UniProtKB/TrEMBL annotation:
SUPFAM superfamilies in the record: NAD(P)-binding Rossmann-fold domains (SSF51735)
One Pfam entry name: adh_short
Protein's UniProt name: SDR family oxidoreductase
Family the entry assigns: Belongs to the short-chain dehydrogenases/reductases (SDR) family.
PROSITE patterns in UniProt: ADH_SHORT
Superkingdom of this protein's organism: Bacteria
Domain (Ketoreductase): residue spans on this chain: 6-188
Organism: Sinimarinibacterium thermocellulolyticum
Length: 274
């Protein structure tokens, strides 16, 4: 129970990796604000946490909508009594080669992966500042945690993902800047860059009709089975990771043992990097 008494917000935590992050943090004692675009998966994650003896509430909505960041942060403070951990996880891919990529595709991916984390951190800044000042006056050193989610596309680029690669590289830059800006507030700001993790976005799909709905947009998902096998063969550990394994990497940056680690990017890809 290394996170007993802590409060965490996890964007995009109704499904996949985000859900596993929320469950992991809750299993270690944190109260969690669960977020998803849709109410049903968010409430399901909240119910799973409650069934395991934890505490969670839902904050449904798009991380890109005006005012969401403030609502997300305030849900933690007002309903759970504080804010100690921020996980910027929400996102999706919308791929194309650059000559076929629209301005809408570019901006949508930048908004969800780069602008939304910026807004959430900005919304939390006043609370973090006030709490840090109070704790310093009391002679206490209390660490808070931010974990931003990037990708090996952000560390090394990926063909057909100019938008996603640029956005995920921006996340790393944001992480480094905020580690320096918030160090005085005792806030550790780190980043986890995922490799091949098996989720609904990367599962093997033989046809071309698999898609998800994101705010009225039909986004193609899935990977050709043969391509997926090739991708897995390139991973030194021999397979794609599970959402639970991805959550484990995020958890490392949330516990007290990482209190003197900040501004770092951890690759969680089974040994594979580009």
């Amino acid at each position: 129970m290394k996170l007993q008494g802590k409060v965490a917000i996890v964007s995009g935590s109704g499904r996949g990796i985000g859900r596993e992050i929320a469950l992991k943090l809750a299993s270690e004692g944190a109260a969690v604000v669960v977020n998803d675009l849709d109410a049903a998966p968010a409430e399901e994650t909240v119910a799973a946490i409650a069934a395991a003896g934890g505490k969670a509430v839902a904050c449904v909505g798009s991380v890109t909508e005006a005012g969401f960041a403030e609502r997300f942060v305030n849900t933690a403070i007002e309903q759970l009594g504080g804010l100690d951990i921020i996980i910027n996880n929400a996102g999706y891919t919308w791929d194309n080669v650059i000559q076929k990529m629209s301005d809408e595709q570019w901006q949508a991916i930048m908004d969800v992966h780069a602008t939304a984390p910026f807004r959430i951190l900005r919304a939390a800044s006043e609370y973090f500042r006030v709490q840090a000042k109070k704790e310093a006056a009391e002679g206490r050193e209390v660490f808070r945690k931010v974990v931003n989610i990037s990708s090996i596309a952000g560390t090394g680029g990926n063909a057909g993902q100019a938008n996603y690669s640029a956005a995920k590289a921006a996340v790393i830059g944001l992480t480094k800047a905020m580690a320096k800006e918030w160090g005085r507030l005792k806030v550790n700001v780190n980043c986890v860059a995922f490799g091949l993790i098996k989720t609904r976005l990367t599962e093997a799909v033989a046809g071309s009709d698999a898609s998800i709905d994101v705010e009225g947009r039909k986004i193609k998902v899935g990977v050709n089975p043969d391509l997926l096998k090739t991708m897995e063969a390139m991973v030194p550990l021999g397979r794609g990771g599970t959402p639970a394994e991805a959550a484990g990497a995020v958890y490392l940056f949330c516990i007290p043992e990482s209190n003197y680690v900040s501004g770092q990017t951890l690759l969680c890809g089974g040994g594979f990097s580009i």
